[in-house]
Amino acid sequence: KFTNFLNELSLAKKTLENADISFGKMSGAVGTYASFRTMEIERIVLKRLGLNRLPITTQVVSRVVYSNYIYSLGLIATVLDHFAREIRNLQRTEIDEVRESFIKTQVGSSTMPQKRNPEKSERICGLARVIRGNIQTGLDNICLEHERDLTNSSSERVILAETSILTHYILLQMNSVLKSLHLNSEKIKANLYLRKGAQCAENLMIELASKLGRQQAHELLKQLSNEENFIEAVKTNAVIMEFFTTEEIDRILDPINYTGLSSQVVEQALGSLKK
C-alpha cells in the first residue's frame, strides 16, 4: 500500500515538474506588437523575469498554460485523497488496521465520547474536492472570446491562489498523518486469517490444476469458497484430499505463504523512486 502510494505521488510530482508553465508576453493588446513594432522589448523583459515566450499570444497567454498548472496540482491532491481514503477505511472499527494519532485533549464528537475520527485524512479528502473543482474552472477559462474577454479574471484571482495554498496545506497534513500513523499489527494479522484461507484459493487452484485441469479446479474451489470455513471445506473434500495432505493444505492456504514477490517488488520500486 505505502509503496504504491509513493509511486503515485512520484508520478504526480513528475507531472508538475514537466508542466510547461513558465511563459509570459509583451505583445500588445491583441498580440500583434502594434504599439512597440518590435519583439526586442518582450525578449529583454522575459529574459529578466526568467520566462519563456510563446510563438503567438492574444492579449494574454493562453489559459492552457494556467489550466496545466492547476491540473498538475489537482493530480497531486487526488493522489493524497486516494491514500487518505485508504487510511480512513482501514481505521473503521471493523477493520482497525491503522489509526491516526489521537491526543488526550482531542474530541472526536461532542455527543459520542467513544469517537476517534481520522480528522486529518477527512480534511485531505474534503479539500481535494475543492481543488478538483478548480480544475474545471481552469478548463472553462481556456474558452475566452475572440482575443480575450474578462471572464477568466475574477475566477483566476480565486483558483490560482486557492489551489496552490490548499495543495501545500494537504501535503503538510498527509506528512503529519504518516509521521504518527499507528499500525495495529495484531488486527492486520487477524484480518489476514478472517477468510479462513479463501483469499489463497488461487494458490491452491494452481496446485490442483496440474491434477484435475484448470477449469475443473477453478469450478471446484469456486463452490467451496461459498462455505463459511473454506480451509475446512477443502480438507473434507475427497477429490482434493486425494492429492494433498492436511499439512500441505495448511501451507498452501496460509496467507503468509501467499505473498509472491512482494518484498522484491517493493525493494525494486523504492530503488527506482530514489533515483
TrEMBL record:
Annotated keywords: Lyase
Adenylosuccinate lyase C-terminal domain span: 196-270
Database matches in InterPro entries: AdenyloSucc_lyase_C (IPR019468), Fumarate_lyase_CS (IPR020557), Fumarate_lyase_fam (IPR000362), Fumarate_lyase_N (IPR022761), L-Aspartase-like (IPR008948)
SMART domains for the chain: ADSL_C
Record-level GO cellular component terms: cytosol
Annotated Pfam families: ADSL_C (PF10397), Lyase_1 (PF00206)
Molecular-function GO term, any one: (S)-2-(5-amino-1-(5-phospho-D-ribosyl)imidazole-4-carboxamido) succinate lyase (fumarate-forming) activity
GO biological process, one term: 'de novo' AMP biosynthetic process
PANTHER family reported in the protein's UniProt record: ADENYLOSUCCINATE LYASE (PTHR43172:SF1)
Protein name in UniProt: Adenylosuccinate lyase C-terminal domain-containing protein
Organism: marine sediment metagenome
